[in-house]
Amino acid sequence: METKRHQQKIEEYITNSEQETFLLAKKLAEDFKGNEVVLLKGALGSGKTVFAKGIASGLGVKDIHHVCSPSYTLINVYQARFPLFHIDLYRLEKSSEISDIGWEDYLGEGVIIVEWAEKIKFNLDAIHVTIEMNDKNQRTIRISNSV
Ligand SMILES: Nc1ncnc2c1ncn2[C@@H]1O[C@H](COP(=O)(O)OP(=O)(O)O)[C@@H](O)[C@H]1O
Ligand SMILES: [Mg+2]
């Protein structure tokens, strides 16, 4: 049996504006192969949706103004270089409600971005992004390829 070990890679960035966070995410997504899962964690207003917009832009979504938190629809799908599935778990409490979305069906079908990823357990490969609010305009953003 072959054991595959990934070396854990953690990167930490400080951004000082919405635009900087957007560009950081955009740059990250430019190298995506099309099956990435991005798990976004951070408080309300920390910048998860800004980060998701940057990802969308990096994947080639033209009108990123249409990219917004799918708080009511739960999942938004955008067409770009790959399909992009944008999920927001903010309003969901029970794990049964979360599994009802059936979002795991999208695994391998495109890029998946999950806001409020604290609410799920996900054991497969993913890009974990944690955003911390330092002050009004400054964020610490940690990006790692495992928990
Ligand atoms: N460095 C920064 N990075 C991201 N957003 C920032 C930053 N500084 C200020 N902001 C502001 O914080 C808010 C983030 O909102 P949003 O992305 O909707 O948060 P969330 O989706 O995490 O609730 C926006 O109003 C944005 O302009
Ligand atoms: Mg949001």
What does this structure look like?
With 147 residues, the protein is of the alpha/beta class. It has a single domain, classed as Rossmann fold, CATH 3.40.50. Helices cover 20% and strands 27% of the residues. It is built from 3 helices and 7 strands, in the order βαβαββαβββ. Strands 1-7-6-2-5-4-3 form a 7-stranded mixed β-sheet. A hairpin with a 3-residue loop joins β3 and β4. α1 (18-30) crosses α2 (48-58). The mean pLDDT is 89. The site of adenosine-5'-diphosphate (ADP) has 19 residues, from α1 and α2.
Quick structural overview:
The protein is of the alpha/beta class and 147 residues long. It has helices spanning 18-30, 48-58, 95-100, and strands at residues 10-15, 37-41, 75-79, 83-88, 111-115, 127-133, 139-144.
Any idea of the CATH class? Alpha Beta
Helix content: 10-25%
Ligand roster: adenosine-5'-diphosphate, magnesium ion
DSSP summary: helix tally: 3
Amino- and carboxy-terminal Cα gap:
24 Å
CATH architecture: 3-Layer(aba) Sandwich
Cα-atom Rg, whole angstroms? 15 Å
* CATH H-tier superfamily: P-loop containing nucleotide triphosphate hydrolases
Q: How many separate domains make up the residues? A: 1
Largest beta-sheet details: 7 strands, mixed
* Count of β-strands: 7
Cα shape: globular
Series of H and E elements: EHEHEEHEEE
Helix/strand structural class: alpha/beta
The largest beta-sheet arranges its strands as 1-7-6-2-5-4-3
